[in-house]
Design a protein that fits this description.
The complex is a heterodimer of chains A (115) and B (161).
Chain A: H1 8-20, E1 25-28, E2 37-40, E3 43-46, E4 48-51, E5 57-65, H2 70-88, E6 97-106
Parallel strand pairs in A: 5-6
Antiparallel strand pairs in A: 1-5, 2-3, 4-5
Helix pairs in contact in A: 1-2
Chain B: E1 39-41, H1 43-55, E2 60-63, H2 70-79, E3 88-92, E4 96-106, H3 111-130, E5 133-145
Helix pairs in contact in B: 1-3
Classes of the chains: A alpha+beta (115), B alpha+beta (161).
Amino acid sequence: MATADASPVEVAQIAAAAAAEVPGVVGLYSGAVGEIATYGGGRRVEGIRVRPGSPPSIAAHLVVAYGRSLQDLARDVRQAVAGALAEHAGPGYARVTVDVHIADLRAAGTQGAGP
Amino acid sequence: MSDTEPITARPSAKTGTSPATTSSGGGSASQLVSDRGTTSIADGVVAKIASLAAQEVRGVAKLGGAVSGALGSVVGRLRGSEHSTAGVGVEVGERQAAVDLAMSVEYPASIHQVAESVRESVIDRIESMTGLQVVEVNIAVTDLVFPGQADEGKQDTGRVL
């Protein structure tokens, strides 16, 4: 278990990877000109903003697929991101607020898949 | 343009704090992982849901078309709306949404029936996907499309024979 907190860009990478795994998430949304991102160490993580603090907060901007309840999806993203950060980002991220922004939507065929 | 809410930080919260989500089904008591945070849905997403919901209805030829005929389709292409929010306008509040929709209908479908089905489909999809209550769906039928008439929308031309 890490004793020191991860840097914001590392936190963003963990959060982005966790969010992208959630069913219904097509990808991360980086804004009209790519302005929504976290920078650090020469890296850029799209779609995530990190606000360190106590408690820290994460904003996840997402592109989602048509069909699934967005409230359910947001809840799943929140749990996945908070869980991944609690496990990998250090003690300061044991409890983290995750704000989910559903920014764009793609048609996954018009059948409307999803529970 | 998304409707963001202030982040609510509750440092002394134990498990069981209700999350501050917009228009959610209330605070759930048992959460294994810290579940705090807000959810915002961009207006364009609501518009796309309405657009896709309308296009699921049989009898809808295509959306948009404030100007009828060939001129309308040229205007549609120039506008470059590649994902069919053309013909759809939405007003989104905290808990409610209103939808304006312009569409053309396939002949000889009953325009009234198609409009009612579109209304039902739009309300159902937006409410189930976003949790917003749809208070109003205004539909304008801007054109009638005849079988065999070339249009860039659906393939189903409703051929009689």
